[in-house]
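Input chain follows. Return structure tokens only.
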Amino acid sequence: MDFYGLAAQVIPVLYLAMLFESRHLTRKPDSYFERDGEPRFWNASQPVGWIALVILMGVGEVTALLCVWQRVTLPIADAVVVLALLSGVLGVGGPPIAQEVRYLRQHRAAGGGWQMPAFIAAALLALLIGPLSWLAALAP
């Protein structure tokens, strides 16, 4: 029961963190066409992926609240709640790691070393894996 109660509290916090990172959802060019220099914008798969994450987290939140309310544990409920927590952590931690990897590629293309950007990317990845291992230890 503690797992479901904790998950019911953590998932809304992940929602808020994703809301504060919504700058990643703004429409900005990811590259430019070579022949005329016009910006090329992101495709529709990015908002669809974010919507899928939000729906999955919502289903996990409702499942966690129902399990707390009914005082029941079910294997399928465990899987849904863990999947919602993992998708929330991925939604929060994924964009900064992807941005840092992009910076690493730009830095390497400009002739710079790989040590500092790779260290920052590894630190961000460690910050992402830490909560995941903690959640795995709490799972029933």
